[in-house]
Amino acid sequence: MTTVAIDFGTSNTVVCILESDTQSPKNLRFNRLSRIFKKKTATGEVQDIPVVPTLVFVKGNNELVLGEQVRAQRWGFNQPERLFKAFKRDLALDFQPPPQQIDGNSYNAKSIAELFLQTIWQQLSQQRIEPEKIIFTVPVGAFERYLDWFRDLATKLKVPQVQLVDESTAAALGYAIKRPGALVLVVDFGGGTLDLSLVRTASSYQISRYQGSKHKELRAQVLAKADAYVGGIDIDTWIVEHYLQQIGSSRAEVKGVGWQNLLEIAEKLKIRLSTAESAKESWFDDENFIAHELLLSREELEEILESRQLLEQLRQALDEVLAIAYSQGITKSKIEQVLLVGGSCLLPAVQQLVISYFGRSKVKLDKPFEAVAHGALALSKVVEVDDYLHHSYGIRLWEPYTHTYSYFSLFAKGMKYPCKRPEPLTLQVAKDGQQEIRLDVGEIAELSRAEVTFDAQGRMSSSQLHQHEEYRSLDSKHQQVCVARLKPPGKVKQDRISVEFEVDKERVLLVTVRDLLTKRLLVKKKAIAKLQ
After folding, report:
1. 474 - beta bridge partners?
2. 232-307 falls under which CATH superfamily?
3. How confident is the model at residue 446 (pLDDT cuts 50, 70, 90)?
4. What pTM was estimated for this model as a whole?
């Protein structure tokens, strides 16, 4: 069976397959779409790592330009309204940005992402690759709507089998799949997200369904997870904003074309500062006849990262993972390797912070771009993945006295499933004569946002990290699930139903409902939502 793994990234997308003869992962290269990164191996050999820049430009007559063509030929710099970048991030938003109207056609993040991946799929056919299974990698913090979008896409592509794997788990298997019992922490820091996952591999004996013989295979156990909504594209923006503050300008003054050019320069500076102490890039604004020269040192970049709370968010994520691990009897010293993946992990400040936690000998950076996709293919050989709930879940309730919504927590992030709430939830109707009680099940997101202030000279003077929770309904249309039909109708201020909640081994949320008035069992273990 031919399996293709696609690591759909905010900045770059990696596609690979298992070679039939060697059963080793092979990165696929697509003419005109792929950008080549050079990587030096431990033996000194230089390897080409092909990636597809996650960029789409809409030309006239609904014609699309994708990947490296957009970056190399600078499509979109003079027409930024036709350029789509970082659209992976928009897929996860609770309220989607309004679509863009181009040449009478409507485009949004979902349609652009679908066109982007469909084009890659067509490239597979041109290389005579006909996959029977596709594996998509997704961030640890991905919400259910984002995952549903991938399942729907696989249906449109007419792929018989689809599997979703979180990126951090895949990366861990990409590094450590060959040795059972490895305990590794993955720090996956790419263009759009920061994901951490503590994973242990273990051997497992399975019985062949055909011959009845035993064989040894590998499974993965995810012990702890954490994530933050921050990535490399934020760093590019911060570098530009820092420069504009220095020269007393703003995004509005440089306008769309200037902003795109400055972002490109910022990305170049960021990449160069991974190996150099200082970097300089210039650009002449033909529209406004202004010469821009961006000079940035590694020390200044680290000050920007610290003031924008990026390093603090990384510290918090590391502390969260270590706290969950400690609650399971796993101390920091027991973690054998810390694996850095994603382009943003090339930043020295990020590496130094991780090294300060675990020591230089444990931190590895051998596969910054391809580990996730390779690990996803390795996971296709894994018999079982023991996991924990990736998010906290709750139900939204209407408060009749305050005329506002609140939410009630059901299961906390990190709980191992199958699991059951120890106490049932008692509910009332919102108005007299109500004949149904419906539940709006959703995920509870933990979000962080940094606020930065500047002094009169344009220097960053202070910052503060704000944390809050946000409720996101699992259903995109916010349709509530009916769990009880009341006969007789309900009355206000009267306890009417008792609801028991549990999560089965397939991560399906089940409810059992009893009518407290009639003493009848209304629903027994009804499936109302698929959790992540």
Report:
1. none
2. ATPase, substrate binding domain, subdomain 4 (3.90.640.10)
3. low
4. 0.68
